[in-house]
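Request: When convenient, would you put together a sequence paired with its structure tokens?
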Amino acid sequence: MNCFALLRALFWSHGTKEDPMGEEIHTQTIARSHTESVSEARKTEDLIEETSACEEGITLKRKTKQMMALNRMGHFFNLRRSVRPLNPTVQDLCSLIENDTSVQQLFTRMFREVPKYPPYSKDPRGNPQVRSYHAMLQHLDNIVAKAPEFDSTILTGFPINAMLAWPMATPSGVAAFLNEKVNVHIRNILNSWAVFLSSPRSTYVLNDDPERGWFGSKALSLMPNFVNDYICDPVLPHYGFTSWDDFFTRKFRKGVRPVERPNDASIIANACESTPYRLAYGVKMHDHFWMKDQSYSLEDMLAGDPLTSKFFGGTVFQAYLACINYHRWHSPVSGTIKKAYRQAGAYYAQCPSVGFDRSTPNGSQAYLTHVAARAMIFIEADNPEIGLMCFMAVGIAECSSCEITVCKGQRVKKGDELGMFHYGGSTYCLIFRPEIELRFMDKAQKPGSVFRVNSALASVDDL
């Protein structure tokens, strides 16, 4: 049984199919268009009140309730025909939810399982919490037609993640976002959005609005020395970036992040501009990664790769990237690419033991290395004291497009580009064999501040 099947078995809750004409479906759709249906429902309820006192009224009450449900259902379908068509990928997800009983149960329940009192009445970005999957689909349709504006919240650049932060932490949400069919449709939605974010139409958010612009005063205060550090031209429209994705995958200017001690084969470089998250020794082949401590489980992390056993008992270093960080990956050592590929996975999964997490998915980062969409690059280092190691890029939420720019057999020097993340936040791991005696820099063992890419991370000699 793979990790997806195991987790679904642990957190699936059986029950009867939710009434497709129930209140949750109809009262949570588009509010403006729903007013007419509510008015008709109230008139019907008044009729019930007047006739329920007599025996005939009891029968009328039952029939009228049926008519009220049919009226709402008819209005709902008329509404769906009257609004503009959903993005085809969003419509496909809608069809899956409405035609698969088990999926519909999960998506209906996960919104009901979110408490209705503060802070859950609003999402982590301060917007009213979405309360039904119909509203979720409408929000998704709006989101994928736009580029993300900057905001000052912890989930800046993560509009989908913010909308789903509370629902995906519920028991039904955990199960829903581990469902393989659901993740196929989410991947298609994100890929469709990526087309827009790679087009010139997405540049409108690359402006100097002080609150919402990515070159406004608030955003640039989080990206100091932007013009000096990155290849751009503030004189040109949008600083010369041709799309949102062009901005997100921006490159450093030559000499800004030089490789520290490039000719010293004993030094392992930091592969990403990132904040240290965890350093673990003696990692097991199999462990309960969904439990509170989120222990690493190599067989699940590396998706059963034949090379996995070579890392049993080894070391894992993990660090994460924020939306404002540089998002390209660089080789931590000089050597040869032995294998490079992407592994499909979940996109909005959250560790079930974490519960509601305002900064989600930050609290689930170790868990996500086992279940999220990710890329694995195995490198045979020139230094035999390091030997075979693995770089793993893990997509998180909106940022799950891992692009690998190297191939099997290719020679790389320490600091050469390996690939990049497209859009959002992300995390990465370096995995080492147990035979290596590593000495990590103090900064790598103290989470909190950004660790520059290409700086010395660890050594196989005395530091």
Remarks:
- The mean pLDDT is 83.
- Residues 206 and 214 are 5 Å apart (CA to CA).
